[in-house]
């Protein structure tokens, strides 16, 4: 069995081919330039294989309502050239196999969810946050994605401001100081005038980020009640997650019973940013078998 | 067909009997005193009828995981005498009929969800907030309740503080200025020294409440993406909901496409606080038919 995976990102499309055990057989990274150029290269890559199914996890916003004429499109993205791109339609036109369509963060959430089953942890629900250039999240509940009239956009909720951070205006073009506007990667430059990679782990800014990310954990916890919350993305490191756990303990103040926080709030179990690829394999396989 | 409904609240148990068309045939209100006394009266009431099924929607926190030894219990409530009360078990011991068990706000959410189908609105997802002595919420997604390792506790997330309200400490005993600590009924006394019912609609406090409730709407919107958000509870009035809609428009700033806000953010469609009763009828009937 061969399943194709497309993790469509703003800078690159990670394309992979895997088997029914979710093992990567081949993988390539294609730069995100124009839809024509990138999608053509993606199709050419997969034409080398006899695929049985495909899974696509895309940057967004995307249309996920099957009864909508724009189902399968990347819709209102600010990314130049990619506004209203029928990504799913072009892939399906090239490959006559069962193909799934969800957000990049849902793909990662599903990969981590499946991994919990493979590793005998067997949780029933999981939220996956990515904290990088932007902030997004996906969620799996009992093998289904959370979402009603659209997919979650958890990065843009508001949070209580940290007392040492009241003068920072935030960088979200829509909301200024929503979660993304306060913790996304570019906030390092905005607050400190330096790239995040160069900020020492002793800088107090990490406490501020942890305070806000802890509130994201509390929102997801009290609204969704997942069994686990996973954090991926370039801003995340072990020290930061330790601070997040400590801040959750302080701010939530024992209000609901949670698993031990080192198991509840974690980095991805799947190495090398492979969560969405594994998720796509599993979703494609599930689609094929249904 | 006769279905029993118990809406177990902190001050009263509303017990009703309805038919397969969700019409109330009989209803009584029993004061919440001690578990022994109240549950005995509830059982005596329902013994008058030949019930086919029952639905219970209870104040919480409650245990909803069927594989947990405390399933069916009201667990860590601060309400005197009611800590660790096996409400479902006592009802099931008295009535050998299919019986459902969920939170009061989930019961209300389900009632409003079913009503949308009866009224031809036919939404697939709905969040129901109650704003009264406390703040709580329940959610239905594709005929299932939202929740993983427990039921939602959406009233205790944090929000960005209103610039004119920075000196108010909040009244939540766990979190001080979480949503409940900033908007629940008793905040009127804490801020103004008067009961909510006596606060004129021209008081600026309503703008403050609307600002926070709009952030609750934004959290539920961006995390769950429901088709509708319904507000019940003694604090809610039409003018407040108008202010909430306006504040959502300003704070969310067009980030995601929503239904017209007068349809998206509403008061209950079911009159006379009957949402949970109708929800229980529908849940009991569904359990019977499954």
TrEMBL record, chains A, B:
Recorded coiled-coil stretches:
none
- InterPro entries, sorted: ATPase_NBD (IPR043129), Carb_Metab_Reg_Kinase/Isom (IPR051804), ROK (IPR000600), ROK_cs (IPR049874), ScrK (IPR054618)
What the entry lists under PROSITE patterns is as follows:
ROK (PS01125)
Q: Name one GO molecular function term.
A: fructokinase activity
Keyword Heme, does the record have it? no
Question: What cofactors does the UniProt entry give for this protein?
Answer: Mg(2+)
Keywords in alphabetical order, please: ATP-binding, Carbohydrate metabolism, Kinase, Magnesium, Metal-binding, Nucleotide-binding, Transferase, Zinc
- The UniProt record lists the EC number as 2.7.1.4
Instruction: Output the Pfam families linked to this UniProt entry.
Output: ROK
Q: Where is the signal peptide?
A: none
Q: Which reaction does it catalyse?
A: D-fructose + ATP = D-fructose 6-phosphate + ADP + H(+)
Q: What does the similarity note say?
A: Belongs to the ROK (NagC/XylR) family.
The record's annotation in PANTHER family points to: FRUCTOKINASE, TRANSCRIPTIONAL REPRESSOR MPRA
Q: What is this protein called?
A: Fructokinase
């Amino acid at each position: 069995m061969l399943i194709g995976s497309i993790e469509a990102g703003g800078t690159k499309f990670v394309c992979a081919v895997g088997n029914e055990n979710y093992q990567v057989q081949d993988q390539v990274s294609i730069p995100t330039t124009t839809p024509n150029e990138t999608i053509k290269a993606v199709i050419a890559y997969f034409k080398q294989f006899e695929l049985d199914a495909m899974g696509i996890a895309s940057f967004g916003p995307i249309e996920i309502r099957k009864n909508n004429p724009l189902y399968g499109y990347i819709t209102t993205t600010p990314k130049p050239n990619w506004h209203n791109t029928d990504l799913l339609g072009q892939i399906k036109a090239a490959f006559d196999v069962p193909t799934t369509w969800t957000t990049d963060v849902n793909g990662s959430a599903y990969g981590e969810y499946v991994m919990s089953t493979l590793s005998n942890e067997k949780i029933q629900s999981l939220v996956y946050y990515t904290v990088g250039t932007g902030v997004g999240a996906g969620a799996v509940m009992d093998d289904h994605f959370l979402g009603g009239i659209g997919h979650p956009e958890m990065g843009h909720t508001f949070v209580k401001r940290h007392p040492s951070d009241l003068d920072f205006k935030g960088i979200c073009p829509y909301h200024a100081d929503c979660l993304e506007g306060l913790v996304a990667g570019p906030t390092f430059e905005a607050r400190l005038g330096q790239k995040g990679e160069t900020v020492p782990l002793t800088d107090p800014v990490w406490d501020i980020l942890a305070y806000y990310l802890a509130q994201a954990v509390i929102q997801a916890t009290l609204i969704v009640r997942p069994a686990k919350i996973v954090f991926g993305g370039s801003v995340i490191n072990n020290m930061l997650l330790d601070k997040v756990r400590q801040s959750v303990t302080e701010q939530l103040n024992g209000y609901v019973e949670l698993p031990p926080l080192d198991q509840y709030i974690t980095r991805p179990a799947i190495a090398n940013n492979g969560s969405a690829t594994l998720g796509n394999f599993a979703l494609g396989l599930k689609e094929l078998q249904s």
